[in-house]
Write a structure and sequence with these properties.
Blueprint (H helix, E strand, L loop, with lengths): L2 H34 L3 H28 L5 H24 L5 H8 L2 H13 L1 E3 L1 H18 L10 H19 L10 H22 L6 H6 L4 H23 L5 H8 L1 H9 L3 H9 L10 H19 L6 E4 L3
Antiparallel strand pairs: 1-2
Helix pairs in contact: 1-10, 1-12, 1-13, 2-8, 2-10, 3-7, 3-8, 4-6, 4-7, 5-7, 5-11, 6-14, 8-10, 12-14
Length: 324
């Protein structure tokens, strides 16, 4: 299969992993907080730390087996950019959930699909083409419908501004993956370096707040958490990030941003059945969501945006020069 079509399929697979992870993580965090009584923000931070440690260990080991070498300076540099932006962006996103509705946070997070073509247009001094604009609007509208967001929900509060900042930071990460100077980097080496940087960012937060590192044992002693955590760290963390960092370079950043909107679709679809399964395993109250017209319409719009940007000729995705 040619690089671009294969990359599109694998990026959608990455979004499937991330999307499934949302209801599973919510269930695990709810169970851990209820069983331990620890503060919600600390419980979230220690869960993230475990994901980062496993990600760094597994992906660095795979990178060593495939290349028989340590990361190069360029791979460390790209991994540092991706790790710092991911760690800061996710922390802002999580903190925003305490200050704004989850639907609002989910919608504003996807603003990178709008920011990316604007950044590229400024950098290239060329307006986005009609196809790009239409694809972005279709995908963003689909996320809005899925989230049930309205204009009144987009007030400029602290939570909304925090998640908007997170979206801009995620934009930096997406753009860093197509930087020409890092084109020769090995994806798994970059992944390992990225997770090591994320550990460095998250470790102090876990160690000096709440019950400290010792409290992690209490969290993972909660019955039923181990099988779900294994799925989260394997299918919802290691696999998606390895695919993203390895294969995003084969498509444009604008197209990648639109494809990443499918994460919201997979999250909504998995919320129809995964909460009930996780609740039964963890003995918590977490109900499945019900199918709705918004899910069908929103998912259809996201799919339409992704298909349009893939099928349209490349020349139609770029507009005239911004000057002259």
């Amino acid at each position: 299969m040619r690089p671009a079509p294969r990359a599109r399929l694998l990026l959608v697979l990455a979004c499937l992993g991330w999307g499934i992870g949302f209801p599973l993580m919510k269930a695990v965090l709810q169970a851990q907080q209820a069983a331990t009584g620890f503060e919600a923000s600390w419980v979230t931070a220690q869960h993230q730390l475990l994901r980062y440690v496993v990600g760094a260990t597994v992906l660095s080991a795979l990178a060593w087996l495939m290349t028989r070498r340590l990361p190069t300076a360029g791979e460390w540099a790209q991994g540092a950019v991706c790790g710092i932006t991911a760690a800061i962006g996710m922390q802002l996103q999580i903190d925003a959930l305490n200050r704004a509705p989850a639907s609002t946070v989910g919608f504003i997070t996807q603003f990178y699909v709008l920011v990316i073509p604007l950044v590229i247009a400024v950098r290239a001094r060329r307006w986005p083409g009609a196809t790009t604009i239409a694809s972005v609007l279709l995908a963003l509208t689909g996320v809005a419908v899925l989230s049930g967001i309205t204009l009144t929900d987009l007030r400029p509060g602290v939570g909304e501004l925090m998640v908007l900042a997170a979206s801009i930071i995620f934009t930096v990460q997406i753009l860093a993956l197509e930087a020409p100077r890092w084109a020769a980097n090995h994806g798994l080496q970059v992944c390992g370096a990225m997770f090591m940087v994320m550990i460095a960012c998250d470790l102090p937060l876990v160690a000096i707040t709440g019950p400290g590192l010792g409290g992690m044992a209490d969290c993972f002693a909660v019955p039923g958490t181990l099988p779900l955590v294994l799925i989260i760290v394997g299918f919802c963390t290691c696999m998606p990030y390895a695919l993203m960092i390895t294969f995003q370079r084969d498509v444009s950043s604008t197209e990648a941003g639109i494809l990443y909107c499918s994460e919201a679709l997979f999250s909504a679809a998995s919320s129809l059945f995964l909460p009930g399964l996780a609740a039964a395993l963890l003995a918590i109250a977490y109900a499945n969501e019900s199918p709705s017209t918004a899910m069908v319409v929103g998912g259809g719009l996201i799919l339409a945006g992704a298909v349009l940007v893939q099928l349209a000729p490349r020349w139609s995705q770029q507009g005239p020069p911004a000057h002259g």
